[in-house]
Amino acid sequence: MPLTVLITGATSGIGEATAIKFAAAGHRLILTGRREERLNELAARLEVETLCLTFDVREQAAVADILGNLPENWKEIDVLVNNAGLAVGRSPIHEGDIDDWERMIDTNIKGLLYVTRVISPGMTTRKKGHIINISSIAGKEVYLGGNVYCATKQGVDALSKAMRMDLLQFGIRVTNIAPGMVDTEFSIVRFKGDEDKARAVYEGLQPLTGEDIADVIFYAATLPAHVCLNDIVVMPTCQASATQVHRG
Predict the structure, then answer these.
(1) Helices then strands (H, E): number in the chain?
(2) What percent of the chain shows pLDDT beyond 70?
(3) pLDDT above 90 (res 248)
(4) 78 falls in which pLDDT band (50, 70, 90)?
């Protein structure tokens, strides 16, 4: 039986790879993101029923209006992948850019909450569903220059644990996935388009790919209903912690 899977931040990286992975198995997709052209281009490549919704998860009114008024045949969402998120800047706390802070907090925490608040009541009514939150190794360890980004991802980690408790009585699964270094648009965004700095992050090592994390998401989502992977840390072999990597 095909699942209906909602993926936020589906225009690139982990979100795009996750859409491709679920589509290959024949599941229906609701794809959201800020870049309409990319969403439509992705949907055109997928040979499954796909609904594309263009909005920014930071905009609570848009989230509530668009996700709260889905077409009738799209309302029963089996899997929610809260993937939309980003890091911006590496400034120390005393030099931090307030706009960067607000962008991370509004996307990584508030956006995740806005989407979950709209989708989870349907799951509780049906007494089934799976929420998968994409956190980070930054949600487990703080590192120099990470400050607010680490705080937001540790917030995701805490929210995942709290959601698991709140939704336990309804049989809803909640999975927190914390990747290490993944080569996507992440570093380009963090360094505000500086491609040299972004490339240097992965120089001399083999990072994870969006496809690697998509494989993990798909595995967690397609386990038998009585099995819940609460928390998954996924690292490239060359990375032992947030700050310890082997380059060679």
Answers:
(1) 9, 7
(2) 100
(3) no
(4) very high
The gap from C-alpha 120 to its chain's centroid, in whole angstroms, comes to 16
Identify the helix (H) or strand (E) that includes residue 173: strand 173-179
Query: Using N-to-C axis directions, what is the helix angle for 13-24 and 36-45, rounded to 10°?
Result: 30
For the four alpha carbons of 46, 51, 54 and 56, in that order, the dihedral sign comes to negative
Q: Are 83 and 9 in contact (CB under 8 A)?
A: yes
Catalytic residues: 149
Burial of residue 232 (CB within 10 Å: 0-12, 13-18, 19+) is: middle
Residue 202: count of CB within 10 angstroms of its CB:
16
Q: What is the pLDDT of residues 137-193, one digit of tens each?
A: 999 999 999 999 999 999 999 999 999 999 999 999 999 999 999 999 889 999 999
Let me know: does 173 contact 128? Beta carbons within 8 Å. Answer: no
Task: Give the ranges where the chain is alpha helix by DSSP (H).
Answer: 13-24, 36-45, 60-67, 98-104, 112-126, 147-167, 186-190, 195-201, 210-221
